[in-house]
Amino acid sequence: MIITKMNKFLLYINGELINAQGARVFDSLNPSTGEVFCQIADANKDDMSSAIKAARDAFDSGVWSELSLEGRGRYLKRIAELIRENAKELADIECKDIGKTTKQTTFIDIPTAAETFEYFSKIEKVLSDKELQTDHPVKSIIVRDPIGVVGCTIPWNYPIIMAAWKIAPALIAGNTVVLKPSSQGCASVMKLAELAKKADLPSGVLNVVSTKDHNVAAMLAASPDVDKFSFTGGTKTGQDVMRQAASNTKRLTLELGGKSPNIVFEDCDIEAAIGGTMSAIFMNQGQMCTAGSRLILSHKIYDEFLGKLVEKTKALKVGNAADYATDFGPLISKKHVESVLDYIKKGIKEGAKLLCGGKVPEGDEYKGGFYFEPAIFADVDNSMTIAQEEIFGPVLSVIKFSSEEEAIKIANDSKYGLAASVWTKDEKKASSVARKLQCGTVWINTYGGFYNEAPFGGYKQSGFGRELGVEGLLEYTQCKHICIDKTPGGKPLVASWF
Q1: What's the confidence (pLDDT) of residue 202?
Q2: Cα dist from 366 to 223, 314, 428, whole Å
Q3: Contact at 8 Å (CB) between 54 and 151?
Q4: Cα 172 from Cα 174, distance rounded (Å)
Q5: Is 3.40.50.1220 the CATH classification of the domain at 261-444?
Q6: Between 1 and 402, residue with greater pLDDT
Q7: What pLDDT does residue 124 have?
Q8: What is the residue extent of each domain of the chain?
Q9: What does the mean pLDDT of the chain come to?
Q10: Contact by Cβ (8 Å): 239, 447
Q11: Which candidate, 87, 304, 325, 453, has a CA 20 to 30 Å from the CA of 115?
């Protein structure tokens, strides 16, 4: 297949769009068709070293960190504008690159990325100096300094959103950035790099390096010239990152796996809860760290709820992600389809009852693509593999409960603690349950609301640190205390101690 120049994405290093050394590239496959739709520059260690050096030099020069907050904000606003101006192209790229439906890329992913850059472009008060009140004759000031060079790695399921979540707060805080997107889904991020160049960011402030070489990617965690590493991905890889970063005591933010509980009480709005349950597990074909993959369902409505849920799930239109009529697109790759199928086999073997889906659909329209029918298991025990391991696909495990205490116990019986949902008309009960759940986000009578103002992150093996909000922004800063003596006469006690 001939790849045109328009379909080749380059590295963005030191303010320039460049080929990888040796002009190495890798193919990006469209999951809806299995065909190559673009090529991506494949960086080696020398390319990554150049990116890290560019970020280091740019930070040490002060060209960015010494720029005013307002000045840095103007660049972020310009990137937001460019994302909106190129929204159609970005949405199409995201759809073809990872198989996310064009409805989602158009109305969720691209607008969200622009909003994130815009939000952090004007969040100045949080980073301003803060004077403390003390009972001593001193002037005590808290100053927020940038950390330095920030390395970032993001997954393939929400590439442009994740890129914005990391780049925008890191840059507004005065850091320089080296971002390494997933090789399985990075075309939209490489396009974002082109837009960053159009925004005329100073050279070296932002660098975007794509690669299929895990050893190249690992350099961000290991390099002493990278002061902080922000990683989103699998828990096992996150543990490897911690080991690599230990050699130079690097600051870390880790947003890792999840096995989120979706608790549905008998006094819920059943239609709303069914719709929310489907969004929680079937949005982006279940390829989400926050996926509500464990439906913890009251025994009082178990049969009624499941009957309606299965009926609506069977009616979903599986098809090409670019078709606006499609409800459910392909998975990311053939390998991932095989992985999800293995979990279906494990669920059946361990005694769960497969109510629908769980197989590759038949028909000419599905040939070449990486399609999978959304699956629902009933009669699941929380100790089963499908209830404990992150499948990262459209497989829902339904677990029955008979009391509030039992629902909470089941929900917390997991090594993960990223998110949860609670469905009930009793707001007092919902709030009580939410406070007892061991996770970083709890949605009540809704699912999946992410807001730039609100922090996001996990408990337990879902990681530590936060994205977004004031808490996420401060992850990219150093806290400095400046203490000025104000003793009358200028003779503090310490001056006369010896």
Answers
A1: 98
A2: 44, 17, 47
A3: no
A4: 5
A5: no
A6: 402
A7: 82
A8: 5-256+462-481, 261-444
A9: 96
A10: no
A11: 325
Catalytic residue among 118, 255, 390, 467: 255
Domain 5-256+462-481 fold: Aldehyde Dehydrogenase; Chain A, domain 1 (3.40.605)
Q: What are phi and psi of 139, to 5 degrees?
A: -105, 115
Radius of gyration of the chain (CA): 24
C-alpha 262/C-alpha 278 separation (Å) is 11
- Confidence grade of residue 162 (pLDDT, cut at 50, 70, 90): very high
CB contact at 8 A, 352 and 418: no
Question: Which two tokens mark 418?
Answer: 């990223």
Active-site residue flag, 289: yes
Q: Collapse the DSSP code of 300 into the 3-class scheme (helix H, G, I; strand E, B; otherwise coil) and give the result.
A: coil
Q: Please name which of 205, 224, 219 lies closest in space to residue 12, comparing C-alpha atoms.
A: 205
The C-alpha atoms of residue 40 and residue 33 are separated, in whole angstroms, by 18
CA dihedral 21, 188, 83, 465 (to 10 degrees): -90
Starting at the earlier edge strand, list the strands of the sheet with 477-485: 130-132, 138-146, 477-485
Task: Kindly tell me if the per-residue pLDDT of 204 is higher than 50.
Answer: yes
For residue 377, with 0-12 CB atoms within 10 Å meaning exposed, 13-18 middle and 19 or more buried, which class applies? Answer: buried
Instruction: Give the mean pLDDT of 287-314.
Output: 98
What ranges make up the beta strands (E) of 217-347? 228-232, 251-255, 261-264, 294-298
Residue indicated by tokens 């929204």: 87
Q: What is the mean pLDDT of residues 7-30?
A: 97
Pick the catalytic residue from 289, 356, 390, 439: 289
Distance CA 382, CA 82 (A): 47
Q: What six digits make up the tokens of 383?
A: 């100790």
User: For residue 183, which of 153, 162, 207, 149 has the smallest C-alpha distance?
Assistant: 153
pTM: 0.96
The owner of tokens 């199409």 is 92
pLDDT, tens digit (0-9, with 9 covering 90-100), for 60-95 = 999 999 999 999 999 999 999 999 999 999 999 999
Q: What pLDDT shows up at residue 4?
A: 44
Rounded mean pLDDT of 301-325?
97
Conformation bin of residue 75: beta by default, left when phi > 0, alpha when psi is -120 to 50: alpha
CA distance 176 to 44: 21
Q: Which two tokens stand for residue 135?
A: 């009972």
What are the distances in angstroms from CA 178 to CA 154, 183, 217? 11, 15, 11
DSSP state for residue 477 in the 8-state scheme: E
The C-alpha angle with vertex 425 and arms to 424 and 431, in degrees rounded to 5, equals 65
| C-alpha torsion sign, points 389, 392, 398, 404 | positive
> With the C-alpha atoms ordered 304, 309, 310, 312, is the resulting torsion angle positive or negative?
positive
